[in-house]
């Protein structure tokens, strides 16, 4: 699993820190909880998409693209970071935003919407929640080509084979840090949405012979849908990028909990509110109201239900997203 075979841009200096959450660990009475700060990755505001974009943008540049097109929900961290990567590279960016709840997009909204305006993309297109975003992006790419732009489409969440390389790299980083710190993590916990982060982490660990379970906390879909999506991504990564030395993943390796979605994607829940408050008040860490808040709610609940041994050492991946806190203040207070 040699990542040096793939072209990569660099948007973060060094590794993201791993912090021991002593106060939260004491409060819950064990296991030991650690947090990997991917909220501190580079580009505007950081977050997990920065790692995927290092490989995706390198591919776009290799193909001679001058415009990145991507899509997401109206408060998409992925759109913010794709726009940021475009600015860093001197490229244009076009965002296609899906208005899942009719009438919910406001150009003057705060959070990520504010940051879109601040960074100034070439165009933003808001489409109905029922619209097929892949088709919408293809149509916009065609229009751009007719105007002599060279567009490169990045799928939802940056979750294709190339995007997964970002979290294969992260898994390798975790292995090195774990050795340096002298801590054998017994579990890794991550939020999971478009599944590239979960898939990359799992493949990165197994590809290095590390058997640590990776627990994905779904923020949108039932577990079976996520499992099928992860299986598909694994096939793509192995088929397209590692065909000579496939990374072996068994069915038991794919663990997804869907009990913490609440009433739906980007909708509030009591667990989310408690988790965001706990991390803010005991650890001075800002989670986000759509992904990490729900994933932490899941971790707290599993701890309370006795899912872990007191001696376990659980690593929670903070995937970023805190700009959305300011858009949904009533979700967390
Ligand atoms: C802050 C944050 N965390 C987690 C995720 C989920 O990552 P993935 O789409 O790779 O499953 C996202 C996706 O947009 C995100 O913005």
Structural commentary:
- The chain has ten helices and ten strands.
- The longest helix has 21 residues, at 161-181.
- α3 (77-89) links the parallel β3 (67-73) and β4 (92-99).
- It folds into two domains: 3-47 and 159-331, Rossmann fold (3-Layer(aba) Sandwich), CATH 3.40.50.1100; 49-157, Rossmann fold, CATH 3.40.50.
- The mean pLDDT is 97.
- By secondary structure, it is of the alpha/beta class.
- Strands 1-2-10-7-8-9 form a six-stranded mixed sheet, with helices on both faces. Strands 5-4-3-6 form a four-stranded parallel sheet.
Summarize the helix and strand pattern as letters.
EHEHEHEHEHEHEHEHEHHE
* Biggest beta sheet summary: 6 strands, mixed
Strand order of the largest sheet: 1-2-10-7-8-9
CATH architecture of the largest domain: 3-Layer(aba) Sandwich
Output the structural class: alpha/beta
Low-confidence runs: none
Please name the defining characteristics of this protein.
single chain; 333 residues; alpha/beta; Rossmann fold; six-stranded mixed beta sheet; four-stranded parallel beta sheet
Brief summary:
By secondary structure, the chain is α/β, with parallel strands linked by helices.
Topology:
Elements: E1 18-20, H1 22-28, E2 32-37, H2 49-62, E3 67-73, H3 77-89, E4 92-99, H4 112-119, E5 123-128, H5 133-146, E6 151-153, H6 161-181, E7 187-192, H7 196-207, E8 214-218, H8 223-241, E9 255-257, H9 270-283, H10 292-304, E10 313-318
Pyridoxal-5'-phosphate binds at residues 47-48, 77-78, 157, 159, 191-198, 288, 291-292, 319-321.
């Amino acid at each position: 699993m040699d990542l040096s075979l793939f072209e990569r841009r660099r948007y973060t200096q060094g590794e993201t820190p791993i912090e021991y959450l002593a106060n939260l660990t004491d409060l819950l009475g064990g296991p030991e909880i650690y947090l990997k700060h991917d909220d501190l990755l580079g580009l505007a505001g950081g977050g997990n998409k920065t790692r995927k974009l290092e490989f995706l943008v390198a591919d776009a540049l290799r193909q001679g693209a001058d415009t990145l097109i991507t899509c997401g929900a109206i408060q998409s961290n992925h759109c913010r970071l794709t726009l940021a990567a475009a600015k860093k590279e001197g490229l244009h960016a076009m965002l296609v935003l899906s208005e899942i709840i009719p009438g919910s997009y406001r150009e003057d909204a705060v959070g990520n919407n504010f940051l879109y305006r601040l960074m100034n993309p070439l165009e933003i297109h808001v489409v109905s929640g029922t619209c097929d975003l892949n088709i919408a992006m293809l149509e916009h790419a065609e229009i751009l080509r007719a105007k002599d732009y060279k567009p490169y489409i990045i799928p939802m969440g940056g979750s294709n084979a190339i995007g997964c390389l970002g979290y294969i790299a992260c898994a390798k980083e975790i292995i090195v840090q774990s050795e340096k710190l002298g801590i054998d993590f017994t579990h890794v916990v991550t939020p999971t949405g478009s599944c590239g982060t979960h898939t990359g982490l799992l493949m990165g660990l197994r590809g290095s012979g590390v058997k640590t379970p990776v627990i994905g906390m779904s923020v949108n879909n039932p577990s079976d849908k996520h499992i099928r999506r992860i299986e598909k991504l694994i096939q793509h990564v192995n088929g397209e990028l590692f065909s000579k030395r496939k990374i072996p993943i068994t069915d038991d390796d794919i663990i997804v909990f869907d009990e913490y979605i609440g009433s739906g994607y980007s909708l509030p829940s009591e667990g989310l509110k408690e988790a965001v408050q706990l991390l803010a008040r005991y650890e001075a860490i800002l989670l986000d109201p759509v992904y990490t808040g729900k994933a932490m709610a899941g971790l707290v609940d599993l701890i309370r239900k006795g899912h872990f041994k007191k001696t376990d050492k659980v690593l929670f991946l903070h995937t970023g997203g805190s700009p959305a806190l300011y858009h949904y203040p009533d979700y967390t207070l």
